[in-house]
Amino acid sequence: QVQLVESGGGLVQAGGSLRLSCTASGLTFRSRTMGWFRRAPGKEREFVAAITWGGGSTYYADSVKGRFTISRDNAKNTVYLQMNSPKPEDTAVYYCAAAKEYSSARAAVYDYWGQGTQVTVSS
Q1: Using alpha carbons only, what angle is made at residue 90 by residues 114 and 108, rounded to the nearest 5 degrees?
Q2: Ranges of the chain whose pLDDT falls below 70
Q3: What's the confidence (pLDDT) of residue 107?
Q4: What is residue 28's predicted lDDT score, i.e. its pLDDT?
Q5: Cβ atoms of residues 2 and 113 within 8 Å
Q6: Is 96 exposed, middle or buried (0-12, 13-18, 19+ CB in 10 A)?
Q7: Ramachandran quadrant class, 63 (left: phi over 0; alpha: psi -120 to 50; beta: rest)
Q8: Residue 20, number of CB atoms within 10 A of its CB
Q9: pLDDT per residue as tens digits for the range 4-28
Q10: Residue 28 to residues 75, 79, 94, 109, Cα–Cα distance (Å)
Q11: Which residues make Cβ contacts (< 8 Å) with residue 56, sequence separation at least 6?
């Protein structure tokens, strides 16, 4: 049974920092491109960032480029999202997702999803 468990969410002040983690089990993590998505209240789910299976390639939404960094530790089956200088508009539930094996970061198709972790950025 595949499980993706996010952690690290909470309340952060604008301009601060926060790191989200997502630990996977039940799949071959090292062969999966991983992504982060978010859903703000009243909005559609949107892509945030992705990282290929070996960590050699990353891809970001324009809205977070230069502020957020995605990384992974294949020895720990964990993907991270470092959020620096968050803004109130980054407030959302953040989800990690696992794509089909050996997907590109830009065109990945995701087939497993976590339950999400709430991030609230205060102004």
Answers
A1: 45
A2: none
A3: 84
A4: 95
A5: no
A6: buried
A7: alpha
A8: 23
A9: 999 999 999 999 999 999 999 999 9
A10: 11, 13, 22, 16
A11: none
- To which residue do tokens 């601060």 refer? 16
Sole residue written with tokens 């990945």: 108
| Both tokens assigned to 107 | 């065109």
Among the listed residues 88, 85, 93, 108, the one whose alpha carbon sits nearest the alpha carbon of residue 35: 108
DSSP the chain: --EEEEE--EEEETT-EEEEEEEEESS-GGGEEEEEEEE-TTS--EEEEEE-TTS--EEE-TTTTTTEEEEEETTTTEEEEEEES--GGG-EEEEEEEEEET--SSS--EEEE---EEEEEE-
Angle at 76 between CA 59 and CA 32, to 5 degrees: 40
Other Cβ atoms closer than 10 A to 118: 12
2 with 25: CB under 8 angstroms? Answer: yes
Cα 41 to Cα 16: distance, rounded to the nearest angstrom: 22
